[in-house]
Design the sequence.
């Protein structure tokens, strides 16, 4: 019952969103049904003629067909009746192609709408949604389960089409010979009832299929992202075994699921033929007219496979429901984590960003950020330092609005962060993470991704500021060199310099460097420090650093420990406090 409710709701949702497509399909089905019925009826005069070419005692249907052919100026013979029968079947085939095309149009229109809705929900969610959902489940949903959903929506449209066809195909034999048709139908339905029990099995197999597919996709994603460490440890065989174990588990589930879908028509087809044969035998014993029996048998042999297909499609639909349920669940979770969007458009940073008693805790952890107070001023360089796990990067996510404080407030130009249109703020931010992500395209396209209106001169100026101009110029294809997936064809330092140039190309009001110089050699790091020192006169600069040599020119330093700000002040002031945490960190790094 729950599955039926889900299916009805799905049909209601998509029927209301795509009424034109469904109405067009319905009209095609009616036309196809009329042509199919005519093709079936045209068998009666052909059979009559084959039994008695003089047509001395024709069937009522044959009389009507003779009248139509004579009215068109043709005389009755085998070739006219044969061509009529073939022509009607050809036209029927053309309509079937049109119906299939219409079903595919509906399928892909719905699938496109689903992708749009789902991506919109996902991309409007906070980072917390992505960190909690698991990459395997998200990737599998977008890659495989959405395809399953699209295919099944096509199956639903097909089932609707087949149901209309089934009714039309049966209307002709009911008109020609109701008793024979009723016998065949009762027998076919009786044979098909046990197959409905398979719906429950199909649903359970669908759940298992989705779960194992999630795990398989997650394992593959993890393997690809970890190739460097796998090769470095020499554990290729172990990784291969882990993946193949997940693959075998998924294959075991999907084999059962797919076999069940294919088994239904294979088992029901002979049962449907048996129903038609029994009905024909009873009618022959009752000495029914042979031409009518031929037409009825043809119609039944056309209609009963449709009933078989309806049963098979029903199995597929129940198999797909777990995929749809996972999609709905993720969409609901994304909406629960939807960003709190304000209505004030951000244009530029006029004052600064202030944290007031901000607290934040990740699920299952304690004291991630505790009562943090800090100020990031315009035209200044603010550094946030601390040991690993002290909460530095969480501060970055809070500044960007990727995380929302549990308590306290974050103010941008003395306005609550949640009151701003958040993307309008982020579009004025240049952000360079510790592990910079470059797209699998050219350096030029990676730069233009941040500012697609930048001129050639501005591209090279940004590269110059990031001390990347020289090495880019020396590459085989210069700025049009393809960097590879995630920038794998460049060194770590080169990737970070391209990422810095990309951020600077936006001409941001706020520049955030999250351990962004960690992969640079000392000489390049020193040059970029000089560049940052010049930049702080035109924008607010936030540097998250573990290496304290990178922040010697910072205007304000916040030292974090266990989610708290334990010290703050200038580099000189903090370094001279011999009992302070900063002095201790400095001493450790100099040792």
Sequence:
């Amino acid at each position: 019952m729950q599955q039926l409710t889900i299916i009805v709701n799905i049909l209601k949702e998509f029927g209301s969103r795509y009424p034109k497509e469904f109405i067009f399909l319905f009209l095609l089905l009616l036309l196809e049904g009329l042509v199919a019925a005519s093709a079936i009826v045209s068998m009666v005069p052909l059979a009559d003629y084959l039994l008695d070419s003089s047509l001395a005692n024709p069937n009522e249907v044959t009389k009507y067909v003779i009248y139509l052919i004579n009215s068109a100026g043709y005389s009755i013979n085998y070739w006219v009746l044969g061509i009529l029968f073939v022509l009607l079947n050809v036209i029927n085939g053309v309509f079937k192609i049109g119906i299939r095309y219409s079903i595919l149009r509906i399928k892909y229109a719905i699938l496109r709408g689903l992708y749009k809705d789902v991506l919109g929900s996902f991309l409007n969610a906070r980072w917390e949604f992505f960190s909690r959902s698991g990459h395997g489940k998200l990737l599998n949903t977008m890659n495989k389960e959405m395809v399953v959903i699209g295919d099944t929506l096509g199956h639903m449209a097909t089932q609707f089409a087949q149901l209309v066809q089934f009714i039309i195909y049966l209307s002709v034999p009911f008109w020609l010979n109701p008793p024979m048709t009723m016998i065949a139908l009762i027998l076919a339905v009786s044979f098909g009832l046990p197959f409905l029990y398979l719906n429950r099995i199909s649903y359970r197999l669908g759940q298992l299929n989705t779960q194992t597919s999630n795990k398989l996709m997650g394992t593959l994603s993890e393997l690809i992202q970890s190739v460097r460490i796998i090769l470095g440890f020499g554990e290729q065989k172990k990784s291969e075994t882990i993946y193949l174990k997940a693959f075998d588990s998924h294959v075991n589930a999907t084999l059962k699921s797919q076999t069940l879908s294919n088994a239904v028509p294979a088992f029901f087809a002979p049962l449907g033929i048996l129903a038609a044969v029994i009905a024909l035998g009873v009618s022959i014993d009752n000495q029914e007219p042979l031409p009518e029996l031929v037409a009825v048998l043809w119609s039944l042999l056309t209609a009963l496979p449709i009933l078989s297909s309806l049963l098979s499609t029903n199995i597929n639909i129940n198999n797909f429901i777990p995929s749809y349920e996972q999609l709905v669940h993720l969409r609901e979770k994304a909406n629960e984590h939807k960003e709190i969007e304000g209505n004030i458009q951000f244009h530029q940073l006029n004052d600064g960003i202030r944290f007031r008693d901000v607290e934040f805790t990740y699920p299952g952890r304690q004291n991630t950020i505790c009562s943090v107070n800090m100020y990031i001023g315009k035209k200044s360089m603010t550094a946030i330092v601390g040991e690993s796990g002290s909460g530095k990067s969480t501060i970055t996510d809070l500044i960007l609005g990727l995380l929302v404080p549990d308590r306290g407030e974050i103010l941008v130009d003395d306005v609550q962060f949640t009151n701003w249109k958040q993307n309008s703020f982020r579009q004025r931010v240049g952000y360079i993470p510790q592990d910079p992500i470059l797209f699998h395209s050219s350096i030029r396209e990676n730069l233009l991704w941040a500012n697609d209106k930048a001129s050639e001169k501005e591209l090279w100026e940004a590269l110059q500021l990031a001390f990347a101009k020289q090495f880019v110029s020396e590459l085989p294809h210069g700025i049009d060199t393809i960097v590879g997936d995630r920038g794998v064809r460049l060194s770590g330092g080169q990737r970070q310099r391209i990422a810095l140039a990309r951020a600077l190309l936006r001409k941001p009001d706020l520049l955030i460097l999250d351990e962004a110089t960690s992969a640079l050699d000392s000489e390049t790091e020193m040059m970029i420090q000089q560049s940052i020192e010049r930049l702080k006169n035109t924008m607010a600069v936030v540097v998250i650093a573990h290496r304290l040599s990178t922040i010697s020119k910072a205007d304000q330093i916040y030292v974090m420990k266990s989610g708290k700000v334990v010290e703050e002040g200038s580099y000189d002031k903090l370094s001279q406090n011999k009992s302070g945490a900063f002095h201790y960190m400095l001493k450790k790094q100099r040792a």
In short: The two ends are 71 Å apart (CA to CA).
